[in-house]
Amino acid sequence: MTQTPFVEIRHAQKSYGTLEVLRDVNLTVNRGEIVAIIGPSGSGKSTLLRAINDLDPLSAGEVLLEGVQVNKTLPPRAYEAHINEMRQHIGMVFQHFNLFPHLTVRQNVTMAPKLLKRLGEAEANRLAEEQLAHVGMLERIDYYPSQLSGGQKQRVAIARALAMKPKLMLFDEATSALDPELVEEVNQVMKRLAEEHMTMIIVTHEMDFAASVCDRVIFMDGGVVVEEGPPSVVFRTPTQERTRNFLRKYLEGAK
Amino acid sequence: MDTDLILKVTPFFLQAAVITVELSVLTVLIGLACGALGAAARLSRHAALRFLGAAYVSVIRGTPALIQLFLLYFGGPQIGIQLDAFSAGVIGLGINIGAYMTETMRGAIVAVDHGQAEAARTLGLSRAQAFRKVVLPQALRLMIRPLGVNINAQIKATALVSAISVIELTYTAQRYIGSTYKPFEMFLLAGVLYLAIITVTGKVIAALDRRVRLP
Ligand SMILES: Nc1ncnc2c1ncn2[C@@H]1O[C@H](COP(=O)(O)OP(=O)(O)OP(=O)(O)O)[C@@H](O)[C@H]1O
Ligand SMILES: [Mg+2]
Question: Subcellular localization, per the record (chain B) (predicted)?
């Protein structure tokens, strides 16, 4: 059976001045698939991830979600309406959480659904409670972000994204800013999402996590996809020299 | 020091202080409006507006407030702008402080971490919604204290309108020196009243800042 691609990136190219950050990247992600993007610093992982919801627009190429082009060229007003609609389907989690510090945990979660889906107060509260329970943060619902640990903040950030009921979740080094002992609680939440078949694209430096959770690993270097495949293959029997070098350095660093 | 004289003139100085407070309140209100418009222009997507905003700030901050007042009050009639001294003072100083407030407000807005607007946009909020719901509430908190500094300067700057004979505190002090020949007492009294106004204002601003501070 042929699956229609859920996410499709075609000939993605991105330059900052003369610096080519993405060079003809092609990537397809199926519904329910969990993809890890790994690679050295500066290889273009974040740029690629942020191109998917057009946060960093591509210089050339296309991003499609269920066949609908995300990065359409439209007049400003039409583009604004289009991208805001598309982004409601694409959740994103950042390295530094980016919770809204002036809002409580509850308000962080309910703001977008209230504004964009016109949820009433009661409905929005129910949604917040449900999503926060899901990430184990219900007890802190009326705290402010500054009163939470890093791991708790990131779990709230995930709940905030999930409250929009996205079809796709993007994670950009969701655990990189966390103290080592707080990484696991966030990983657990992501694993749970994986079990629920959320489609996820995860930029990560954690190879163990990628190996245990992801269906496919993409290794990027210098703005290109060097190698991709199931974690068992990419991690154990990589075919490319650059992948081997990267993994060797990673293992040395981990020791 | 002639304390009897001070007690005798104090009621008149208090009346003048009321005018100084009125001038301060009105100029600050105009300044806040000009500052909001100026900051919006400086941060606009349109180059023409950005240019206008930048020109406003550099012209106003690059010339003495006194010259601006004279230009408006004495020069205005020549180009068809007839204003009484009080109105000219309020408008002139309001526009002047607005340029400083423009920079204060712009500074507070750009000081909000870019990741905040980004996170809001990622959820599907429009630029305007992200600004209103996420950036502005944080920027407002950041701007209270620096705006307080602008307001403090502005209260003192109302003394300038004595030069176009608005009967406020400084002008009143000068007028009583003419009849009493006691500049020490008169300026001292005026100074004490300025200090009182500024102290109260400072406390109000600090209380406001405390009230909206995040946990
Ligand atoms: N706004 C920008 N202006 C100029 N260059 C940029 C900009 N953003 C990213 N770059 C450059 O693009 C390249 C790729 O950056 P990107 O953030 O995608 O890397 P990354 O793979 O996510 O790295 P890391 O693992 O360090 O997060 C880097 O060389 C970076 O310096
Ligand atoms: Mg990155």
Answer: Cell inner membrane; Cell membrane
Angle at which helices B47-61 and B3-42 cross, to 10°: 160
C-alpha B173: how far from chain center? 22
The verdict on the CB of residue A42 being under 6 Å from ligand 1 is yes
**Domain annotation covers residue A216:** yes
**Number of domains into which chain A is organized:** 1
Are A84 and B124 inside 8 Å of each other by CB? yes
Inter-chain residue contact B122 with A91, CB threshold 8 Å: yes
Instruction: Tell whether ligand 1 has an atom less than 6 A from the beta carbon of residue A14.
Output: no
pLDDT digits (tens, 9 = 90+) for A98-139: 999 999 999 999 999 999 999 999 999 999 999 999 999 999
Find the B41 Cα to ligand 2 centroid distance in Å.
33
Strand pairing partners for A13? Answer: A60
Contact A26, A48 (CB under 8 A): no
> Does some domain include residue A82?
yes
Q: What's the pLDDT score for residue A253?
A: 79
Q: Using one digit for the tens of pLDDT, what is the confidence trace for A34-62?
A: 999 999 999 999 999 999 999 999 999 99
Closest Cα in chain B, distance from residue A4 (Å)? 25
- Note the pTM of the prediction, 2 decimals: 0.92
Under the banding of pLDDT at 50, 70 and 90, the label for residue A175 is: very high
Q: Model confidence over B90-108: pLDDT tens digits?
A: 999 999 999 999 999 999 9
Q: How far apart are CA A29 and CA A36, in angstroms?
A: 11
Name the residue range of residue A98's domain. 7-254
Q: Which helix (H) or strand (E) holds A214?
A: none
Residue A28 bridge partners (DSSP): A8
Distance from CA of B126 to the nearest CA of A (A): 6
B3-213, CATH topology level: MetI-like fold (1.10.3720)
**pLDDT grade, residue A252 (50/70/90)?**
confident
Residue among A90, A98, A168 with most chain B CBs within 10 A, to mutate = A98
